[in-house]
Each structure stands twice: as structure tokens, then as C-alpha cells.
Amino acid sequence: MSSSIPSLNPPHRLLFGPGPTPVAARVYEAMAKPIVGHLDPFFFQINEEIRPWLRMVYGTTNPFTMVLSGTGSAGMEAAVSNFVHEDTKFVVFIAGYFADRIAEMGHRQGATVVRVEKPWGETFTDAEVREAILRERPTMVGYVTAETSTGVWQGGNAICQAAHEVGALVIADCVTSLGTMPINVDATGIDIAFSCSQKGLSCPPGLSPITVSENAMNRLRARQTSNRTWYLDFKLLDEYFGGQKRYHHTAPISMFYALREGLALIAEEGVEARFARHKANHLELVAGLEGLGLKMLVNNPHRLWTLHTPIIPEGKDDMKIRKYLLDQYSIDIAGGFGQLAGKIWRIGLMGEGSKKENVALLVESMGKALAAA
After folding, report:
1. Would you state the pLDDT for residue 2?
2. Are 207 and 252 in contact (CB under 8 A)?
3. Which residue among 36, 44, 90, 339 has the highest number of C-beta atoms inside a 10 angstrom radius?
4. What was the pLDDT predicted at 352?
């Protein structure tokens, strides 16, 4: 005798952590559209619609701007594995967890990795990055624009300028900045940039938008050894998404629909207006948190507009506060990890979640949680 299995009914969470972020109804609706094959002309049409919008949010004219089937970590591994190998000297500026992950990926590719480190939550000055790059004279340089573990924004102009002086290419992690803050890939001089779909673009996780400069692509085409990671080989992916449309893998069609709609929403809002919205809500949230007596880990002007890291007050329990917010308000924020475990909260305000009413809700609920604890 068969029995009825209840339908799926996830809880409705208010996602104010470092990601994923709230998803617009229009994006959910797009994912319910009929799928086509991964070699269907309509799928490639969707992909071509996505590309100019990605160039817009990245601030680039790079022809090689596309989407990887994989999360932001796949984008990171793709950026590293295509350009970093046994003959590479790879300088990585590390002041947080995800920069450390870039270095680890370089190590696994057999590169000579030079770790330039500072305590988590700090930034590198122009003089520091220039001295390190001119001293080491690497062939590749890596840094994180928006460090998700700390809430720090790291400027890239000095990094890229010094790297190009010694003939190096620059990889930039834009996971928590794309679609919310000006990255300006071309003006900054970034050669390879990667991100994800579930943060500033307000789509579900599963895709990694990337962009690669022509200079970097020319170096890749001249590479004599094969990428050890077949799935993330840019040469093969270019044959799939480019002119040849040669089968490479089965792309997640519904996720491409979602990203198309998420980027369309950004285009309709206007990218500059979107940046301004995120900055205004960021400033209001910081003022509200400081009004509750909380101190921020990161000094101005190095704070992300998307991820806020207040220091947990002495005597307050990290998990109890977060449990109170989840139980009483269904608000999901994150704690610190690594060097900052138990020391900070990570409060995301990005994409669909960056709204004035959400700022007010976060400040009010955090105030009540602190009082209850």
C-alpha cells in the first residue's frame, strides 16, 4: 500500500549572512521555465545575453567573459589552474581565509608560492604590495578584492601596476564584490577575475562568472603544458561557449536562466544606482550597529559595502545571539572562522537583501538579541 510523501517545505529564512543571499521572485520564476539541451541554440542565445551584462558589472570589455558551471570555488580553481603551474612563481597577498585558499590551490599546482601575509582584517598598503612584487618578481600575483572572512576591501591598482611592471598577471577574487561595488577590471588592470552567482548577483549558488584579459588569454594559448584540471580548462570551455559550440559538459540550464534574470534586474536598476544603494545601506547599517555599542573590525574606508563584521562584545555568546536571531526572527547571520572564530559576526547586506527596511530590521533585532543575551 503506497503512502503519500509530504512535499518539500523549506523554512523561510532571512538570509543576512555572507551568502547565499535573498533571491528575487523573478529569478525563481525563471528557474521554473522549460529546460532545453545544453547544445540547443536557445541555450547559447541565453549565454550570449549574459555576457555583456557580466562585462558591465565587472567593468571590462574582455571578449573572454563567460560563466563556469560550478561555485565560486570552481572559479578560483579555474583561475589558478589555467595560469599557475610548476614553472610559476606565484605571489599571494593573504589577510584572510580565501586568500589563503588561493595560495593552497597554487601550491597544489606545483607552483612556487610566496605568501605575503598580514593579520586577518588588515589591508596591504600600496608601498607594501609594490615592495613585495618588485622584490620577488613573480610571474603571477593573486589577491582578494572583497575578503568574505573579514569584511575587508583591498584596492588593486598598486598590485596590478607593480605586477605588470615585472611582467606578471594578476588574479582577483571578486566573489563578494561583483554586482555591488565597482571592480573596474580594465581600469584597475586585473587580468583574471572570478566570482559567484549567490552573493551580489542574488541568484542561487552553482555558477561562477569569470573574465580574462586578452593579454592573459594570449599567454594561456602559448602555454605548452595542459591544464591538470580538465573540467576547468579555459581552452576547452572557449570551444564550448565560443564559436565552435563543441560539447564539453552538460551545463545547468536552469541556473543559466536564473543568472540571466538576475543580471537583467541589475541592468534595469542601473549599475551605478545599484552601487549607490549598497553604499547607502551599508553606511546606515554601520551607524545602527555602532549605535548599539558594537565596534567594527575593519576601519573605514576599507569596509565592504556587502559584508559587515562587528566585533562580538565581551561577555556575549556568539552562538546564543545567532540562535536568538534565527529562532525569533528567522534571521540567518554568520560567525567568524579561522583566526576570527568567536570574535566577530558576519552580516551580509547585498543584492536583493540590501534594502532600507532590512537595515532597520537588522538593527532592531540585533538590539533585542544583545539585550536578551
Report:
1. 66
2. yes
3. 90
4. 96
Residue tagged 573574465 (cell numbers):
211
* DSSP state at residue 92: E
Q: Which amino acid is at 154?
A: Q
Helix axes 41-58, 253-269, angle to 10 degrees: 40
Question: Measured between alpha carbons, how far is 74 from 93 in angstroms, rounded to an integer?
Answer: 20
Calpha distance 29→21 (Å, rounded): 17
- 3-class SS of residue 300: coil
Angle between helices 157-165 and 126-136 (to 10 degrees): 20
Count H helices and E strands in the chain, helices first: 13, 14
3-state SS of 144-170 is ECEECCCCEECCCHHHHHHHHHCCCEE
Enumerate the domain spans of the chain. Answer: 25-267, 271-372
- Chain centre distance of CA 147: 9
Mean pLDDT of 257-263: 98
Check residue 206 and report its DSSP letter.
S
Q: Which helix (H) or strand (E) holds 291?
A: helix 271-291
Give the span between the Cα atoms of 185 and 192, in whole angstroms.
Answer: 9
CATH number of 25-267: 3.40.640.10
Cβ neighbours for 320, distance < 8 A, ≥ 6 positions apart: 373
Rg of the chain in Å (alpha carbons): 21
Q: Which residue has the higher pLDDT, 373 or 347?
A: 347
Query: Looking up cell 561557449, which residue turns up?
Result: 241
25-267 and 271-372 have identical folds: no
For helices 234-241 and 214-221, angle between their N-to-C axes, nearest 10 degrees:
110
pTM summary value: 0.96
Are residues 159 and 143 in contact, defined by beta-carbon separation less than 8 angstroms? yes
Superfamily in which the 271-372 domain is placed by CATH: Aspartate Aminotransferase, domain 1 (3.90.1150.10)
Sign of dihedral through CA atoms 16, 20, 26, 32? negative
The type of residue at 207 is L
User: Which phi and psi angles does 176 have, rounded to 5°?
Assistant: -105, 20
